Amino acid sequence: MRPVRSDLAPRPGLSRDEMESLQRRVAEAAVFEDDLPFDPARVSLDSPERENETLTDATAPGGDADSPPLVAGIDQSFLDDRALSAVVVLRGGEVVERVHAVSDLDLPYIPGLLSFREGGPILDALAELDCDPDLLVFDGSGRIHFRQAGLATHLGVVCDAPSIGVAKSLLCGTPDEDVDGRPEGWRTPIRADDSVDPVGGHPAGPETTIGYAFQSRQYDSRPIVNPLYVSPGHRLSAATAVDLVSQLSGSYKLPEPTRLADAYADEAKAQYED
After folding, report:
1. What is the rounded CA–CA span in Å between residue 38 and residue 197?
2. In whole angstroms, what is the distance from residue 64 CA to residue 104 CA?
3. Model confidence pLDDT, tens digit, residues 142-176
4. Is the distance from CB of 106 to CB of 124 less than 8 angstroms?
5. What cofactors does this protein use (predicted)?
6. For 84-137, what is each residue's pLDDT tens digit?
7. What is the CATH number of the domain that holds 186?
8. Is the pTM of this model over 0.85?
9. Which of the chain's termini has less CB crowding within 10 Å, N or C?
């Protein structure tokens, strides 16, 4: 998978002002409404029928008219000053490809500028794929971001691919309702507040839904599980983004694509630590 908008790709050596300016350009290019090459109803964890299907068929974008689209989960682990970026691609509940790349890190973690630390290494891993995923699911924010250009938005725009951000904490914005102790399946909109800048044609105000708090799992026998914060990255609406994350959720808090990518990142990391 190769960048389509290389001019917007995160790159080292930029000042903070230059990074924030590039994020505004990314946000201006982002599409926060549904523009999908597949029917969202086809996204699921059900394994497609494999009879008479070749590997080429399995990794072809979109598949046939009845098969689920290719969904890539993306996560990272870290080796001192290097990032190991892992990508796991699913069609339904079946893993069809796993790749990783190890890349140098050029920046420390700076809130709101995560894509400039992790984006380049993730693009290195995506370049290793033989397939072109229909949907990218990131461990990080999308539109829930100070300049509406979190990691999922930045790399979704660069790759011109539908993308979703799934974060474990809320970077900015305000939930409509209190999020504590909610039942499994519950969701509430995250509205833009004063911390979110209007960018290009994308407004920012209390009437603007930039994502959802989503209670993916809750267990009677365990302490309260906090919600996920789901936001559109690119070519998706907030409502469709949270619906897709719900459809991709299995028995764990994280959606299955990013859960498997997280596990694979740790598995691959072990080979570099021996």
Report:
1. 31
2. 39
3. 999 999 999 999 999 999 999 999 999 999 999 99
4. no
5. Mg(2+)
6. 999 999 999 999 999 999 999 999 999 999 999 999 999 999 999 999 999 999
7. 3.30.2170.10
8. yes
9. C
Give the total number of structural domains in the chain.
Answer: 1
The response to whether 46 counts as a known ligand-binding position is: no
Q: What is the pLDDT of residues 191-227, one digit of tens each?
A: 999 999 999 889 998 999 999 999 999 887 667 889 9
Q: Provide the Cα torsion 19, 261, 78, 231; round to 10°.
A: 30
Q: Which of 223, 224, 221, 220 is nearest to 181 (CA)?
A: 224
> Virtual CA dihedral for 31, 33, 34, 36, nearest 10 degrees?
0
* Integer Rg of the chain from CA: 18
Distances 240 to 33, 82, 150 between C-alpha atoms, Å: 9, 34, 18
Cα–Cα dist 37/161, whole Å: 9
Phi, psi of 187 (to 5 degrees): -150, 155
Residues, the chain: 274
| Domain enclosing residue 112, as ranges | 6-45+67-269
194 marked ligand binding residue? no
